[in-house]
Amino acid sequence: MTAKGRQREPIALDIRAELSRRRVTGQISVIVEGMPTGAALSAGTNNWDKTWSLSREDLDGLTFYPPEHRGGDHVLAVRVLRFDDEGFDVANTVALFDMVVRPPETEPDPGIEQERLASAKKKWESESDQRLSRAKEQWAALESERLAAAEASWSAGEAQRLSALKATWQAEADARTSVLEAEWQAAAEKRLAARKAAWQEEEGRQLAAEKAVWDKQAGDRLAAAKAAWASLAEQRLAQAEASWQAELAQKLGDAKARWSAEEEMHLAKTRAALESGRDRGPSVAGPQSAANIEDALAAARSVWEAETEHRLSQAEAQWRIDVERRVGEIRAAFDGEARERLKKAEERWKADEKARLAKAQEIWQAEIETARQATAEKHARPAAPAVAAAQHEADAEWQREISARRATADAKKDIETAKEDTQARRKQAKIEVWRKTEERQRHKTVQVKQRIAGLRPGRRRAVVAVLCAGLVVAAAVQMVRTGTDPRAVLERAVSADRTTDQRLLYVRAEAAVIRAEASPESTALDSLPRNTAVQEIRRRGEWVQIAAPGSDSPLGWMHSTLLRTETAATR
């Protein structure tokens, strides 16, 4: 292919026509090789190695500026490169041909040639500036993408390194905390065991002394009661004997009067019979008949006296039997009353002893809880500075390493604060719902008590007796089945209407703090007053996760020393 023109005049290079003839399409790049020294093209980029790079857009109106003071033809090699269709930065040569550029036949006018050169140079410089500007923009965009990718990679690496550092610090802090907690727990257990042993020994001595005093007082009271009962029994026996003797004397008098009347009648009949016999007999028999009459009277008197003695002995024997029977009945009644009084006295003593023991146990438990809480606070104070120092050191290191990302960290912190505020508000709402539920339950309890109080005394006693009997029977059955303490069974039976699947606990402090995590340094969410009922969800060491009664949504964590298993009212 040949292009002609005048010297120093631009010579048109129709490369596009050659490409069309060769049917070259797609995304291409053209490189013109073999450019003479001092020659230039109206478009494209000078590579300063006697080659020019052209795009498809640069081929429109492309001209060649030959060098000054050099004649002859110029042979230019045109290489066509095509890029990969799949976007890879790979180019292949699809065409290679020569173009011959011939100089002009006549010498051009120097003035006109200078103007053309100046105009072409100005145009070339303008186009060069535009291409340079576009190249700079493309380079800036590519550099921004590379910087963004590098920054993302760096951020990911920084996050991993920070996570590893935090994990290492957390493990070290946990290990130190575990060691301190184990040491404190062992020391606290030893002190509590020593205090418990001393308390039990002292309590045993006090109970033994009180029991000895009570035994002596009970013996004195029983002796006095027995003496009083004996005196009363003697008085009753004396009164009964006097009454029985008076009754017996009256009966004997009546019997004697009756027997005397019978004797007089019998003697009168005998005397009449004798008198009639004497009147019928001869007169010589008078003295003998009188003797016979006296003998008969003596025999009748003997028979009457024998019968009287027999009757008196029978009456005395019956009287003695009656006296023994009545004395036995009185003694049996006395013994029954004595046993009943002794049983009641023993029940009162056992109740007093149980109350004293319960009171002593409550005092001891309160002392142990107070000592444990004081020990926990005492051992928590030394551990807190070490943990705070380690945390401060890790935070300082973290701040030094990511000082360039402080704005992002602040934004994340704000997001976390917003999340904590949202969680706190949600927990506060749950606490309000729980408090309303608790108020409703208390209101229902008051209504039930008012209804029971509004019943008639007899019906109220019957209802209370039925409830108590049911609780006692349930406690006895449970005690027989499991062999457990009946007091614990009764407590579980009484609290059965409050306990579901999970145990209820009660706040023992004036204002127990609820924390977000199982740690004394964790954020305080809220506080609950004394005797507030909460539901235990799970435990982690000395910390208990709590919720409102009947709810599965946790309110937070509370230290176990601030909770107990029963309220002060029930105890």
Descriptive notes:
The chain is α+β, with helices and mostly antiparallel strands and 571 residues long. The chain is 66% helix and 14% strand. The protein is built from six helices and 16 strands. It has helices spanning 15-21, 110-280, 286-401, 406-454, 457-482, 486-494, and strands at 2-4, 11-12, 28-33, 40-41, 45-46, 51-55, 63-65, 74-83, 91-102, 504-507, 511-515, 524-529, 533-540, 543-547, 554-559, 563-564. The model is unreliable at 489-501 (pLDDT under 50).
Total E-strand runs:
16
Structural class: alpha+beta
Question: Could you tell me the mean pLDDT?
Answer: 77
Give the strand order, joined by hyphens, for the main sheet: 1-9-8-3-6-5
How many helices in DSSP terms? 6
**Spatial extent as radius of gyration:** 64 Å
Q: Helical amount among residues, as a percent range?
A: 55-70%
- CA distance, first residue to last residue: 116 Å
What are the segments in which pLDDT stays under 50 over at least 5 consecutive residues? 489-501
Largest sheet: 6 strands, mixed
The fraction of residues in strands falls at 5-15%
C-alpha geometry? rod-shaped
